[in-house]
Hints:
The chain is an alpha+beta fold. Helices cover about 30% and strands about 20% of the residues. About 55% of the residues are buried.
Amino acid sequence: MKFLTGSRQSAYDVVVVGSGAGALTAAATAARSGKSVVVLEKAALLGGTSAISGGMLWIPNNHHARQRGLTDSAEAAGAYVRAVSRGRGRAELLDAAVLYGDSMLRFAEDELGVRFIFLDNFPDYRQDLPGAVDGGRTIEPELADIRDLLGSLAGHVRSDGRAPFTMQEYEDWGAFTRFPWDELDARAAGGLVAKGRALVAMLLASAVRDGVHLAVGARATRLIQSNARVTGVVLESGEAFSANDAVVIASGGFEWDTELADSMLASRLYTMCSPPSNEGDGLRMAQRIGAQTRGTREAWWAPMSITGDTRDGRPIGTLLRFERQGPGSIMVNRHGKRFANESQNYNDLARCLQSWDSPNNQTLNTPAHVIFDQAYLERYGILAHRTGEPTPSYLVEAPTLGELAARIGVPAESLTATVERFNEFAVKGEDPDFHRGETAYDRYWGDGQNEWPNPSLGPIERGPFYALEVVNGAFGTNGGIATDGIARVLDVDGDPVPGLFAVGNATESAYAAGYPGAGATLGPLMTMGYLAGRTIAGQSASYEPALAEAQLAEAQLAEAIR
């Protein structure tokens, strides 16, 4: 264990296990009220899954949208999240995410110093459901100067290894072949970071300003109880940390524990992109003292490819986004046929790839491949590969569709017929089979410069042709410890466990099996972190700036008197 800020104390008011956005929001919120807080991170780097994420937050009915006159309401958002959660979400969690998301957002901006970009045109993922809007519920962090914010601590924050571009810029620029790489290199050299790393950096800066102690290499394995109340944690090393007020479990999911994942998830998980430290430690800690668990069959599913990338020395998957959504590419199953709208959101698309205990772990749709041609490669590239470079091992190349089919093991006549039918309608901007390109979400991730009528559709015509295998992956699991609407952990009888809170991917997702929009991971988990911090501090769940200033002044006066 190594302390990056502060030094070891025998007791703190709040002990937070984990250092992702949910953990840091809880820690910074509690510290803002004057609580002494320690953050215990298992890995050598801070930030967890949040630091390598897109950093977006899905916050319905937020003040940025209201200020711009966009139409939204808690009622519309509530109807939408209930529909998207497939009837599995618990009302108190859904309500907490919808009703207090904007309080969290305003608190993060006003009190914690987090700066966001408002995305007025980023559509909800399920445009077919009641209450969906075509923009205004997603925000993302501004670019941040990590060295200015954190000084020497900057080198201890996890990175996704990508250039510092915002998700808004990603959408504006479209393909990686159009990115201003010289500008992005200059940003990186100047210390600018983006997306999840920027969010984590700003939260860490707030935590450090208010005296939060940060430790890495500190794996918590057990909870301490006294008279049924949780009073601290024990590390793998045997060291103990006492908590005067509360312990907050925010240690991530269980996706990297293969045995646990296979025993719980609804489908086999073939790859992940999260830090390998997500092994279900928090879940086990809570289970040992009789905590209730819920939603453990679910994950933040996503179609991914295995390209040789690693994280902390372990192989990880790469999310496929524009690679399957750009005009001139399709996905086919083991029969050489399309099976879904390739441009739909990644969570729902990945469900079409899922399998469990079928022959060779195959379903009708696996193995699956993205198919594209030389024209596509020249326009957009594919992942890190560009035309003119040697074809990487993760791509299959062939001069004709028939030969490509043979190399990936699908019927040649079927693949050829599939592409011919797709091309026939793509040049007209239509997809009668799966309706790709018909929703605002589909078109958002298409190419506005596409020469064909629909930004999501284009023909596959010119060889050589390429195939990229797609597997069922996930950003992380999203079920686990059950909590109430203010993040208190519940026991098997549904009663709060005194002194114990939990947030983030260690817990049951507010949206259960659903994924409402970009940022539906970080939005609710930061909201629950905020609610945990406010509850521990004895403060109202609603945030009003004037009231917050008065409470802070009162706390400072009380500290001065002591």
